[in-house]
Design a protein that fits this description.
The protein is α+β, with helices and mostly antiparallel strands. Helices cover 23% and strands 24% of the residues. The protein has a 5-stranded mixed beta sheet with strand order 4-5-6-7-8, covered by helices on one side. A 4-stranded antiparallel beta sheet has the order 3-2-1-9, with no helix packed on it.
């Protein structure tokens, strides 16, 4: 009797397993999916929003964004950005003047820009290649009158960036000038120092 009962129970269990297996669709549950059950969802931070002139943080409301990058090496041109407008050449936009000193002598153009700039003009400058011999002393003097403390210290292939204002005063808390001299032991490129840059925000009501 016990043996018969055991056989009947085994047969019933086999039929029940077969019935359940027939009802469950194939490929529905995998080991990987079972392991995922109970895992906490991974929260991913959203991609950071690009700011004007590639700033890490946005400028406050009512401010202009700017970034001045000197040249570095023959293929790395100087770049000047103002409110996301990029320039690698001499440029005059509205009341903003940007100037890149490249291997050609642009002393005359620079002096004309500075002299003809109206009161309330913001000037952004950078070097590419050699500003020491490609910029005449008269042009350097005009830049010095704008507040530059390094223009006459430029040496062969020095990297130099500068922001100045004509007819108004820039905030004291912004970096206005930076220079990096060529040093054969420390140059990033062969015969060229590393690029340098300054960036910041200018209150719109100053211009």
């Amino acid at each position: 009797v016990r043996l018969l009962g055991f056989l009947l129970i085994s047969l019933a269990a086999w039929y029940l397993g077969y019935f359940v297996a027939a009802l469950v669709p194939q490929h529905t549950i995998s080991v990987a999916k079972l392991q995922e059950i109970g895992k906490k969802p991974v929260l991913r931070a959203p991609a950071p929003k690009r700011q004007k002139c590639d700033h890490w943080t946005p400028c406050p409301p009512g401010h202009f964004a700017y970034r001045i990058l000197s040249g570095g090496g023959k293929q790395r041109r100087a770049k000047i950005c103002f409110e996301d407008e990029q320039s690698g050449n001499v440029l005059c936009v509205s009341r903003i003047t940007s100037c890149v000193i490249d291997p050609a002598d642009h002393s005359g153009e620079m002096m004309d820009f500075i002299r003809n700039a109206m009161e309330g003009t913001l000037l952004l400058m950078a070097t590419h290649d050699d500003g020491s011999t490609k910029l005449k002393n008269e042009a350097k003097k005009l830049v010095e009158e704008l507040g530059s403390k390094e223009i006459k210290n430029i040496k062969f292939r020095s990297s130099w960036v500068f922001i100045a204002a004509k007819g108004f005063k820039l905030p004291d808390n912004i970096q206005k000038e930076k220079i990096n001299h060529s040093d054969q032991k420390m140059n990033r490129y062969r015969g060229w120092p590393a690029e340098i840059q300054i960036e910041g925000c200018i209150p719109r009501n100053l211009i």
